[in-house]
Amino acid sequence: MTSPRFPANRRRAVAAIGAVSAGLLALSACDKPTPLATVTIGTTSVNSEATCYDDGHALDTSALQKCLKDTSDAKTVKVDPDATVRFGVDPAVADKGWTFLLNGQQITESSKKTYTTIPGNVFFNEQYGGQSSTGTVTIVEGDGKKAYGLWTFKVKKDD
Hints:
It is a single chain. 23% of the residues lie in helices and 36% in strands. By secondary structure, it is of the alpha+beta class. A hairpin with a 4-residue loop joins strand 9 and strand 10 (147-157). It is globular.
């Protein structure tokens, strides 16, 4: 028995359908991006996906502690002590509430707003847990009882 013969345009159509199917399969295997947190100083903005996030589920204590310690992937922003620094979060994060930590010390009360402003000098003031020229800023999504996400930035004094 001889094999059936397909015209060239039919083979191309079958190949195109196969390529589209493979592409859709690859996309469905991708992780959904986490909500973003943004730092804005003047006209410069830096945003980041979460350091730790479990698609809206509460993080357990051990995962949270590990994430607080691991700042290796944190983006660095230069901060002029005289500048106003704006921090923003996605509305989905704001709905659960969020707090702001500087070097592990809570600086703000829990907020359900999508942004807050902090004077640049706070990051370098020992009274607020700041250090002389660098620091770590962490945004924690949660109500104070549970944490759902963590975003980390490093701040560096811009003289």
